[in-house]
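Lab meeting minutes (informal)
Scribe: AK
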Amino acid sequence: MTLQQLKCFLVMAEVLHYTKAANQLYISQPSLSYAISELEKELGVPFFERKGNHTLMTKYGESFLPYVKQIFSTLNEAKAHLYEMLDASTGKVNLGYIYSISFDFVPRMLELFYADQGNSQITFEFFQGLHYTLIEKLKSGSVDLLLSANPDDKTIEGVPVFKQELFVVVPENHRLANNDCVSLADVRNEPLISLSKTSDIRNHLVKCFERIGAKPIIAGEVAECIGMSALVRANLGIAITPLSPTFEGGKLKVLRFHEDERETMHRDIHLLWMKDHQLEPSVKRFRDFIIDRSKSA
């Protein structure tokens, strides 16, 4: 009997669906079936049975379930105790964040964090990427903390840390280039250079356009802001995006939305972590630092 087999049993008992359970465990369905089969074989009783299109737990499974829950509860308590014994002033933080905050927010927070000499022995490994890719890294455990939009996922906890304003970026010869501010209606028929569908900002823009009864006209998709700025400079479309240094310099004009639209033309950036994952003390220390800074901002 292994912990992996018990974990497979526990998840299966919660969802009673082999495909869903396998997805939650990040294993194949045959691997899940084999693990449960081996556990049943060792203990000599069936834990699940099929009735029509449904999977049900047997009386043996129902009897076994509270003991398995207690095993994992005790194991988590033991891990928590060991983590508390560690020194929070050392360790590594695996920090993920979306591209658009890599130029300002992340470097500023790290500079302030390291201004405290008590944090000097904490190291970081950084993971930049698009929203949905980073969410998968968070769920798999590759990332401890993630700065991105809220995924509305019950397995993930988080707090909002700041509002990220969106701007309109146009070529310098564009009809709107001499304006100081624009409305979303002003650009509803403009070809748009957008991040790909794996970026949260793409879905956010779709919702913004829906509010004015329109759909964005996607002229091109890119993976990050450098590609976006290059295509806007080439007069292939405009961009609606957070600010970054890639939009500075010649041939581009950055416009704000009218003040009455700025409340909607932004997105909330959250600090995220897995709800059921025990964070190491150094990770907790950085998490609490970011939360405290956001409250005082």
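Next up, CB showed the second protein from the same session:
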Amino acid sequence: MDMRPAFPGAPAPLTPPVRVVLIEDDTDLRDSLADLIGLAGFEVLTGKSALEFYQILASQPFEIAILDVGLPDQDGFSIVEHLKANHHRHGIIMLTARDGTEDRIQGFRRGADLYFTKPADGRELVAAITSLALRLRATDPHPAAAETAPPAAPSAGEATGPEPGTADWRLDPQQWALRAPSGLSVSLTAQEMRLLGCFLTAPDGIATRSALLGSIGKNPVETEDRSLDAAIRRLRRKVEQAIGQDLPLKTVPTKGYQFTAPLR
């Protein structure tokens, strides 16, 4: 394997390669950045929405996330807040057209490591990814593996859950729908897709009130805002009326809500 830098001045690729997730809704920009990052020796996974990011987060290990702030379904700041609230150990680079000081401060307060304004210099972005990955690996030699460690095998006599896929609820981002284990589906609004997307990567299926509030466009700090509970009630009623089955969501006092069945 050729380990030379992809262009003059670029840092040499790391071993093992750094896996980067790039979320950008502008197709041309996403493709050009993915090509540049890939040529620099990184593995790249791409998506165009917050929902696609959460699906990658639930299924693929990675070290660095590059997030556009202005996504169509949930802003990048809310994704960062979700990652930090659920103790995910990823490096986070914000990539956005917003160049105001307040926007940059907000990004750092939410937990971003670096903030780039479009159009970002490709060499600087590659150097930033390398530097951030080295910093992460210095504190945790296997950060990506730690995020996707398989669950421990059950002890003798311990009950096991259903086989994967037999009792799963599924979010379908192409059809904007939630599919029940029975095979019946219910169409979802953009807000409902964002809300349910929070449960895809939440530990034990428990999403915090802050993360859920952010997903429906409310202030995540105002955790006493009852609009979240109203949105949950409407979603439960909608699912029950559409497919005749209860949505497996329960309240977790002082925390938020838990999706008690497998969701993917």
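CB comment: The radius of gyration is 20 Å.
No objections, moving on.
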